[in-house]
Amino acid sequence: MNIRTVARMAAALVLVSASSAAAQTTLRIGLAEDPDILDPSLGRTYVGRIVFASFCDKLFDIDEKLNVVPQLALSHTTSDDGKEVTIKLRPNVRFNDGEPFDAEAAKFSLDRHVTLPTSFRKPELAALERVDVVDPLTIKLVLKAPFSPLISQLTDRSGMMVSPKAAKEAGDKFGLKPVCVGPYKFVERVPQDRIVFEKSDMYWNKDNVTIDKIVYLPIVDATVRLANLKSGGLDLIERLLATDIKDVRADSRLKLSTALELGYQGVTLNVGQDKAKGALSQSAKVRQAFDLSIDRAALNQVVFNGEFVPGNQWVNPEHPYYQKKYPVKGRDVAKAKALLKEAGVTTPIAVDFMVPKGAETEAIAQVIQSMTAETGFDMKIRVTEFATSLKQAEAGEYQAFLLAWSGRTDPDGNAYIFMRTKAPQNNAGYSNADADKLLDEGRATSDMAKRSAVYEKLAGIILADEPIVYLYHRRVLIAHTAKLEGYKQMPDGLVRVIGLKLK
Question: Which of 32, 40, 128, 224 would give a disulfide with 157, using CB separation of 3.0 to 4.6 Å?
């Protein structure tokens, strides 16, 4: 255990003592990474979404079965042509700075998501032409074209509402001291150390908020997170290692909550902005050979004790939009070698393999490195701090990138921003006119059969071009103290804090 890890554990234990001395109930949550900026327009990390859940309500939310349920919006109706969505808002709601939440404020937030130059919400709301204020508690979203994923998008960061007053005053520094409608209000953030929130006395549903304070502690080492949970230094940890499931289940002081994730785990391949012009970026056959070199079932067994679900698409095999025409392939080293021969490349093929720091990610990378070496790939693993890896991916400073995507309720949310030409998270630099057309078509209809037919065609193209090699789908693994009551895990992986009680 290195000095930094010991220091982090000490900091966590100090925080425990401080919270006890204050005679308040404090929920301490161990995160696998430090989140990026806490601005719903600019944020892009999964761990950031976990933190947002405590202080930034959305227009809508989801339940355990992925049904859309009200949050700041009470209801919505869609016009017959699919181009107008009218949303009724919850009355008597205030932001945590005391400002009223109404139709004007909702319009401000949605406009900000769309117009802020560096917003990652733009593609999620690309169909939005304008927001009209109908009355103080009603807004109308006028669309450029029918957009079936819209309400689904509003169950996530695109539906988060920020205080117009605070956002205008802070400008591009809003994420340093964010103000939303939420059960908790922001207190402080010490980068790489802690993020602190305290219960809001202005929250519309404050009777269901019983814990006084929440402290998020980024602890990259999963073993240290679990050790802190066992010792009482933490109350809940996200991303428990699959290999620790048995240990948690055997401990009567702990509980395990799980759900099959909406997202995917895969390797993004730099097909469009690889400055070194490596073989992976130049040939689809080389990328197909890379894919065929990997035994997904063995990877799942070796690293995760078989607890996760092998996959090959942007949704998991249990998802209604999974394309059964294209099942997960088995490993085929002979065919992979034949494809490399057809591509006319010289082996070993050196690949800069960027891997976010972490016990599981590094273990996955090592298995992939070993498996693909048999075919002729030399995966040069480069372990990188997570936030840094995202910046380098955006700049095209990698050839293969082991990346997890936490997922969205609508399949469009797992595909469009990664595959559409010049989409903001298309770090592969992928561009295919036929794929673009299908991605647009998938957004234009709400009919499930029609959408499924579109995604079947899209799957055929993506599995041939391979800008992303999908590997498996995790089970969301949340471990928490048995003293925490009322916790339910949703498939989106978020840690919801309303209704929780800490004995």
Answer: 40
Place of tokens 């957004």: 443
Residue 23 has pLDDT above 70, yes or no: no
Q: What is the pLDDT of residues 220-266, one digit of tens each?
A: 999 999 999 999 999 999 999 998 999 999 999 999 999 999 999 99
Helix 433-444, helix 412-419: angle, nearest 10:
150
CATH number of 60-166: 3.90.76.10
CB burial class (10 A; 0-12, 13-18, 19+) of residue 320? Answer: exposed
How large is the average pLDDT for residues 57-72? 92
Q: Does domain 264-473 have CATH number 3.10.105.10?
A: yes
CB 260 within 8 A of CB 473: yes
Q: Where are the domains of the chain?
A: 3-55+182-260+476-502, 60-166, 264-473
Residue type, 499: G
**pLDDT over 60 at 357, yes or no:** yes
Domain 3-55+182-260+476-502: which topology? Answer: D-Maltodextrin-Binding Protein; domain 2 (3.40.190)
Token pair recorded at residue 493: 């992986």
- ∠ CA 104-105-110, nearest 5°, is 100
Q: How many CA atoms lie within 13 A of 476 on its CB side?
A: 25
Q: Where are the alpha helices (DSSP H) in 324-474?
A: 333-343, 359-373, 386-394, 412-419, 433-444, 448-465
Which of 481, 400, 362, 432 lies closest to 29, judged by CA?
Answer: 481
Considering Cα of 451, then 406, then 164, then 75, what sign does the dihedral take? positive
Work out the pLDDT band at 24, boundaries 50, 70, 90. confident
Say if residues 170 and 158 touch (Cβ distance below 8 Å). no
pLDDT band of 299, cuts 50, 70, 90 = very high
Q: What is the pLDDT of residue 424?
A: 81
Torsion sign, CA atoms 417, 46, 141, 129: negative
Name the residue among 281, 288, 285, 302 with its Cα closest to residue 366.
302
